[in-house]
Amino acid sequence: MYYPYFRARQNELFCLRELLKLNKLSKNITPILEPVKCSKALFDTLRDFIEAGHDIALIHNPEVGQFFSEYKEMLQDIQNEEDKTKAEAMQKRADEYKAILNDKSIITAFINNDELADKIVKGNLDISNCFIINKKEGDCDFYLENGDKFEARMTFIPKDEDFKDEVIGNVSILENCFQKARRNKDYIENADEFFSKYHLVYGKRGYQGFSDYSIVGDEFEESGFAPVAIAIHVVYFDEKKQLRIHHFVSDSNNSISDPARKFEEAMGKLLDWENYENVRWTIGLNKLENYYVNGKFPGLGVIKRYSIMHHLELISYFLGEDR
Fold first, then answer.
1. Which of 41, 60, 187, 271 would you call most buried, defined as having the most Cβ atoms within 10 angstroms of its Cβ?
2. pLDDT class for 160, splitting at 50, 70, 90?
């Protein structure tokens, strides 16, 4: 099983919804969402997965973003709205959101920390049907001291065999496979890199699944900015079926001007790449190619959306449900 971890940004959500709608997301893939914003796109995505009967997990104690503050603000706005008709419409939407958040078909997930561990140890939280996500090797201490109380539906841990030995029940590995460069133009220095082989070895190593942050990485940035260079990240299988990633970077990188030209330069390199014909066809890559052929610049978020889509399609294919 593959559990891609996303911060539930808009284009990540659009990617998941589009794959689901096109029936191109394997049932062996369960996305994990750490919500950073209380957005309509988030709830629409959760609703789509509920209706499709496709597993998805939602983290209830996000570490970054403003989900809870925005959710509370939405509820407060209802109280402050003087127009009765508007207030009723707002309340209806809030009720719909609450129903989605409480839907039992959405897997409840938590990031492990001192506060959560205290609730578990004291018996104030039943995690038997939850995902517990451990991001630090130091989280192993919770299991060394109270491992019998931490058995969850699935426990995610960093790469650490000693940690795995302390976990009772199902365990998946969570690793950041995307090596994020400081600047996009820095990818030129190492254009082709190893990405992951966990899809090949997770079972052999005693894990029930594997998880990563796709081509986004685990670093969270509150807001984006106009880059000097545009980079397109394409994951592909090598001859051993290991995953590698190639970075296609624009050439006109002296200023932030003319992003359309930068996209054209990066896509030109992708289409001229000697391995391009050997990369499995995906809707994600086809969408990017169509923008290039039609002379259109899709925007930075859309480029990322279809690069993620390509990655998830590849894993869907590998897991045997290319549908």
1. 187
2. confident
Confidence of residue 322 (pLDDT cuts 50, 70, 90): very low
* Helix, strand, coil distribution of the chain in percent, nearest 5: 45, 15, 40
For 244-258, how does the pLDDT look when each residue is reduced to its tens digit (9 = 90+)? 999 999 999 888 989
Q: How far apart are CA 283 and CA 276, in angstroms?
A: 14
* Dihedral over alpha carbons 204, 205, 207, 208 (to 10 degrees): 0
**Number of domains observed in the structure of the chain:** 1
Residues 214, 308 contacting (CB under 8 angstroms): yes
Distance separating alpha carbons of residues 43 and 162, to the nearest angstrom: 38
Any domain includes 175: no
Residue 247 lies in a domain: yes
Contacts of 48 (CB under 8 A, 6+ apart): 17, 20, 21
* Chain-centre distance for alpha carbon 262: 26
Enter the pTM of the model: 0.94
Report the C-alpha gap between 289 and 161 in whole angstroms.
Answer: 42
Dihedral angle computed from the Cα positions of residues 303, 308, 311 and 313, in that order, rounded to the nearest 10 degrees: -100
Residue 223: per-residue pLDDT: 63
DSSP 65-126: SSHHHHHHHHHHHHHH---HHHHHHHHHHHHHHHHHHT-TTSEEEEE--HHHHHHHHTT---
Give, in order, the Cα–Cα distances in Å from 132 to each of 120, 128, 154, 288, 296.
Answer: 11, 10, 6, 36, 42
Tell me if 248 sits within 8 A of 230, measured CB to CB: no
| Structural domain containing residue 296 | 180-318
Q: Inter-axis angle of helices 10-21 and 40-52, to 10 degrees? A: 20
